[in-house]
Fold ABC transporter ATP-binding protein.
Amino acid sequence: MDTVTYQWGRIARIALEHRRELVLANLIALLATLASVPLPLLMPLLVDEVLLNQPGPLINLINPLVPQSWHGPVLYIMAILLVTVLLRALALLLGVWQARQFTLVSKDIIFRIRSDMLARLQRISMAEYETRGSGAVTSHFVTDIDTLDRFIGGSVSKLLIALLSILGTAVILLWMHWQLALFILFLNPLVIALTMAIGKQVKQLKKHENAAFEVFQNALIETLDGIQQIRASNRERYYLSRMVDEARRVRDHSAAFEWRSDAASRFSMMLFLVGFDLFRAVSMLMVVFSDLSVGQMIAVFGYLWFMMGPVQEVLGVQYAFYAAKAALARINGLLMLQQEPRYPHRRDPFAGHRTVSVSVENVHFGYGPGQDVLNGISLTVPAGQKIALVGASGGGKSTLVQVLLGLYPAGTGRILYGGVPLEDIGLDRVRDRVATVLQQPALFNGTVRSNLSMGRGFTDAQLWQALDIAQLSDFILGLEQTLDTRIGRQGVRLSGGQRQRLAIARMVLADPSVVILDEATSALDAQTEARLHEALGHFLAGRTTLIVAHRLSAVRQADHVYVFEDGRIAEEGPHEALLDRNGLYARLYGHYQ
């Protein structure tokens, strides 16, 4: 899969696919500006025309529209007040409409980014994922995406109206008194430049805060995932104290960012207010030494205050941009993580066959340099045969299962199904036809039905048949909502043995060509396990099966046994022969017999 990353240019190209919405948004922003920019001018002009008895354009506009008997200060003031209220309401409605247009574009951009992230996550290498941690990945999908969304949908839409408002204000000020306008317009960029310089320093603090929060979130998720075992070991104090330490780091970095960010915001406001006072002083001098009228001076005061909002919006966009830029970098970091290889579908050994052989040829694998777990493993399972993989913990049995499924690529050597190398079959096709049941199966916070079907379409009859084979149908029948009963996160409402049997039923429904049982019955009592092996015996008959187990009862289901030791196959043979040879089971697993 080609690396897909998002730069601002690409985001802009996606946005341009919504030309109609963007054109409409810009037209609405222009209308909103035309409605709002004249507002600070209307009432102040009445100061000259009404209070100072210097009739001008507003009175000359109103007089022809009403009877002469109505003429007077009350009419003029109330008429302009009504126009002002209507223009404010119109500007508000247009602003909301414009924000809606930008929101629609933003949500589509965010949807595409999130979809690409999910597609990328589908094939992310397990080594990369486990190193990254679920907490860090979650923060990219939630916190970083939300930061980007708020910038694109909120800050950018406000920026357009803010810039148009500043432009409109500049035009009116130039029309009123061009010397004063130029003074104001040249000084404002200086204020913006100073505050942007401060903002660049603050963004580094935000970066440290985000990194600390990511570590905290990752540690929190890991702790919550293992809370049952932590509590059973009476180690809550230790693990939660670690969380407190991480929370303290978040506090320190957040505090540093918050107060300095607030200080920068206050400083920028102070600069603006100092400029505001300076402009007012200059305006008053212009009344004394030029033709600027008192009403126009008050209008200038109004526009100075009116400009404060747009200028602050422009300044706020820079902080939002720094946050969005950092979020986008972290999102791209996830998108650029190493992916699983995508093998072509050259040959399909499963087509037309109920089962296939499995071969492992001189496979070496290690989780890191110098950390080999498999050291030249070679074995062959003829089609339809059952084998058992036994040995002390850490011998490489479960690792071999991961390599067989391609979850971890072999360093050297080959995996073959039906004599066809894994690289010629494709990982997705192998995983469709090879079913694995783990000691700790993954269950979801849904119903029994959804955990069995996993998105596939099965009839109730098929579900009950699978549950019957897994020796779980009686229990499910006893539940109030049977198949529609929710089992909780990781199947918390089920016992360990019930979870394993539910996973076995899920495997039965998949109707696989090859079955791998990795300590799949370790939580069952002897009587239930015996009934399950009997029922599974009919289902597994003629299917290639690999059994990873410590229990002698599980191993006895196999035709052939491979003994793992330090990543190698130390012994192999029929289980009856190994059972008699030097008391192998008694030596390795005596406590299970």
Summary: Residues 236-289 form the longest helix (54 residues).
